[in-house]
Amino acid sequence: MREEMEARGVTPMIPMRRSRKIQIPVDDHVYALRNRIERCFNKLKNFRRLATRYDKTADSYLGFVLIAAVRLWTRVFVKYPRGDGGSWRHTDDPDAAKPQDPDPRR
User: Where does the record place the region Disordered (predicted)?
Assistant: First the structure.
């Protein structure tokens, strides 16, 4: 299978099993990017409307793909509310993990 892919000009980035006698090296960085894209497609398939193609036209299907992608993208930045009635806690905020002391004099 690898020879057929290479004949088409594709570089296979699937690691070999550890039990194989001949190990073909794989670029870890490229494999991590491939894995991230594959996981993104799997998350998009969780939207039933995308997996079953409810939309009749390609434009409306593409529109929902974009909506689903934005919903996945926003989950990276906004996880859950702080619970104190304030704004939403962002995951990339370094102070988000620290509990806020209500009395700053302590």
Answer: 83-106
